Every structure is written in C-alpha cells, then in structure tokens.
Amino acid sequence: MFAFLKKGIFFGLGTVAWLMEGAARTFNGLAKRGEAGQEGTRRMVDEIIQKGREQNDEVMQRMKEQISGLVGGVGMARQEDVLRLEKRLEAIEKILLTRR
Predict the structure, then answer these.
(1) What is the DSSP code (8-state) at residue 34?
(2) Which residue has the higher pLDDT, 25 or 54?
(3) Which of 10, 52, 87, 94 could be disulfide-bonded to 19 (CB atoms 3.0-4.6 Å)?
(4) For residue range 65-95, what is the model confidence (pLDDT) as tens digits?
(5) Is 27 exposed, middle or buried (0-12, 13-18, 19+ CB in 10 A)?
(6) How far is 76 from 39, CA to CA, in rounded Å?
(7) What's the predicted TM-score (pTM) here?
(8) What pLDDT was estimated at residue 91?
(9) How far apart are CA 35 and CA 26, in angstroms?
(10) Where are any strands of DSSP class E within the chain?
C-alpha cells in the first residue's frame, strides 16, 4: 500500500514538473518567433503552472480519499484513532496515579 502512495506522490510531482517544462518550452518558442510578448508569455506560463498545481492538488486529494478508504477497509488504525486512544490512556494513567 505504501508503494502505491509513493507512486502516486511521484506521479503528481512529475505531472507538475512536466507541465512547467512544457509550458516554458512552448512559450519560449512563441516569444522567439515574436508570436507572443515576453510579459504575455510569462503570464500564460504562470496560468498553466497554476492550473497544473490545482490539478495536482485534486489528484492528491483523491488519492488521500482512496487511501483512507483502503486503510479503513483493512482495519488499520488511522492517526486520529491513535491520538484519541493516547488521550484516553493519559486520562486513565492520571486516575490511576491519583489513587496511589
């Protein structure tokens, strides 16, 4: 399962890097040919990069939801479950220590 998570994270990061490189290449070519001004090119690159980041965030959110479902389905404790149990354990320890 952790291999799946790792692959997903790398996929998301790779997608953003790929989009950034492709956008920069495309708009640098346009600027060299005079089809786009440098400021307009920079703005378009920034917009594409932002869209890529938003899409990456959406992919990561979907992955988190899928992983959460997988973890819940196999009976693994989530971080919030562990934290809740730790708080309960601390409360029990305090009660026991005051009774001594």
Answers:
(1) T
(2) 54
(3) 52
(4) 877 777 666 667 778 888 999 999 999 999 9
(5) buried
(6) 52
(7) 0.43
(8) 93
(9) 11
(10) none
User: Given CA atoms 14, 19, 22, 24 in this order, what sign does their dihedral have?
Assistant: negative
φ, ψ of residue 70 to 5 degrees: the values are -65, -45
CA angle, residues 85, 71, 65, in degrees to nearest 5: 110
Residue 19 backbone dihedrals phi, psi, to 5 degrees: -60, -45
The residue type of 52 is G
For residue 64, give the nearest of 79, 75, 86 by alpha carbon. 79
Helices 38-73/2-33 angle, 10° precision = 170
SS3 of residue 66 by DSSP: helix
Domain parsing of the chain, residue ranges: 2-98
